[in-house]
Design a protein that fits this description.
Length: about 550
């Protein structure tokens, strides 16, 4: 597409059937400052009507504005200036502030908070994600919109995400313009809001099934986020199958996260209504990556980082009994990169550092259960001992040697890189960090005679710079230590893993598999014990 130098703009006001709102929107456009622009209106709220209006526009740029919005005086000029400053084809979004009319309910509060967070992202992010876009207060090159395949989404929120995803796939930049502000009044009651959110959930399923490449950008791409308490509350409330009125009543007893939780439950209720049972399980039971370190030798006691052979065998047996499928990490990565959902409740095993006991203790047990695993090796310490765990329980523990690596070949064990000396990469200069990262890859590839594509951050520490270096070094994915399950929206260079604590009971291990967070499982066990002890004293 040729370089843009727009001089005029067409604003397309989309109809929602509210004549009073449309009049208010058009009146706000009369107060605009700056260069002239044209105004067109759609005959209805359909996407086809919008495309027809854009086709009739006679300018290079079009700005889509929902009739419920009131444009701030500088909105049109801000959109024009943003495109001129970018000087490349772009999809530009402006913020929308929400004022709640009447008594606020949980979903109205969620909408207002979501709008506030979106404004912050528009102000701070240099590159936006498709999820940041709505099909209102958004401008684009006219020809780019007309060249886009007809969209399938039926709601403004999902239409914006779908449009942004299609633009991104074509290399068109996604950008924000904080100065292009607009506002709207939120007039919907709880029940009407709930119905709209459920429709969004059902629409997400239809979009994902029709075009799987869109799934990572959709709000259903990740069932479990990073907040494990919210995750647990969502699962419990979905299991109760409460109607909207029941959720409204429940919200009064939740903490300040109630708006977020109730919105999420309603969205996933819509997903469940539209998805088949297998798709539902794939979406809500995402893969879990377990993280081990060392395994107890004869006479050695278990500890946080040391799991006994008997406990490892019981854990693998439990995984099988609970219907979980053990998969190689590489299989999960392949599924995500091919825009497929891995089998529900999949489990991948990873082992950090590369100790001798991985071969002598763990490997026979892994073989017995046909359990694949990935060992992340510290290449500069192979054949030596752990010298980085100062004062820790793994200090001076013997590591595999390079001659051990071929013995692991053909045993469903993959070898990944874990740096050369296990430093905190975020504390190193970029050049030194790159030597640690790319050097470990080169060391392993020379020893194994094949490509090494997986990396684990030493100490779990990474930032944008380090993640960029890992990508630049040629790795396909990288694992951290943040707990949780993984889904299509999980960044491939920030995969979550769940630490397996050698001190935990089997019950805690089961809770870890269910909740995706060993700490939350421990908290639940502690709470139950306290309440049982208190009840015993009272009796």
């Amino acid at each position: 597409m040729s370089r843009l130098s727009p001089s005029r703009l067409t604003i397309v006001v989309t109809s929602g059937g509210d004549g009073v709102a449309r009049a208010g929107c058009l009146e706000s456009l009369q107060r605009q400052r700056g260069r002239p622009f044209e105004v067109l209106t759609t005959s209805d709220g359909s996407l086809e009507s919008l495309r027809t209006a854009i086709r009739n526009a006679k300018t290079q740029l079009v700005l889509v504005l929902g009739e419920a919005l009131e444009a701030q005086p500088g909105l049109a000029e801000a959109h024009l200036s943003a495109h001129e400053a970018l000087a490349v084809p772009a999809l530009v979004a402006g913020p929308i502030d929400i004022q709640i009319e009447g008594a606020p309910h949980a979903l109205a509060l969620w909408e207002r908070e979501a709008a506030r967070r979106r404004r912050v992202r528009l102000e701070q992010a240099t590159e936006l994600q498709p999820a940041d876009f709505l099909l209102t207060n958004v401008s684009m090159p006219r020809e780019a919109m007309l060249a886009t395949d007809p969209m399938r989404a039926s709601t403004p929120r999902l239409s914006g995400i779908e449009l942004a995803s299609r633009f991104e796939q074509r290399g068109i930049r996604l950008s924000g313009c904080p100065a292009a502000g607009a506002s709207t009044s939120y007039r919907f009651g709880f029940r009407e809001s709930a119905d709209r959110i459920r429709r969004d959930g059902a629409d997400c399923v239809r979009l994902a099934l029709a075009e799987p490449a869109l799934l990572p950008s959709l709000p259903i791409a990740e069932f479990d986020g990073t907040d494990t308490l919210v995750n647990a509350a969502r699962r419990v409330l979905l299991a109760t199958r409460l109607p909207p009125t029941g959720l409204a009543a429940t919200a009064r007893f939740l903490n300040d996260r109630a708006p977020e939780i109730v919105h999420s439950v309603l969205l996933w209720q819509g997903v469940r209504a539209a998805a088949g049972s297998e798709t539902w399980r794939e979406l809500t039971r995402g893969p879990l990556i377990l993280m081990y370190h060392a395994f107890a030798r004869p006479g050695e006691q278990r500890s946080r980082f040391v799991v006994t052979p008997a406990r490892l065998a019981l854990q693998l047996r439990l995984i099988r009994l609970l219907g979980r499928r053990l998969l190689p990490l590489e299989d999960l990565i392949t599924a995500w990169t091919e825009h497929r959902l891995p089998p529900p409740q999949s489990v991948a095993i990873t082992i950090d550092d590369g100790y001798v006991d991985n071969l002598t203790v763990a490997l026979p047990i892994l073989r017995r259960f046909a359990a694949p695993a990935t060992i992340f090796a510290v290449t500069g310490a192979l054949g030596a001992r752990n010298d980085w765990d100062s004062g820790g329980e793994l200090l001076a523990r013997s590591l595999l040697s390079y001659s051990d690596l071929p013995m692991l070949a053909g045993t469903q064990i993959e070898i990944g890189a874990h740096s050369r000396s296990h430093p905190v990469l975020t504390k190193l200069k970029p050049k030194t960090a790159m030597l640690e990262i790319s050097g470990s890859k080169a060391d392993l590839e020379a020893a194994l005679g094949r490509a090494v594509s997986t990396f684990a951050y030493p100490h779990g520490r990474a930032n944008d710079l380090v993640r960029g270096l890992v990508r630049e070094a040629g790795f396909s994915v990288a694992c951290g230590i943040a707990s949780g399950t993984n889904g299509p929206a999980t960044p491939l260079f920030a995969l979550r893993r769940v630490e397996v604590d050698g001190r935990h009971s089997l019950f805690q291990f089961v809770l870890t598999l269910w909740l995706g967070d060993p700490q939350l499982g421990s908290q639940l066990v502690t709470t139950v014990k306290r309440r049982l002890k208190l009840r015993g004293r009272q009796s």
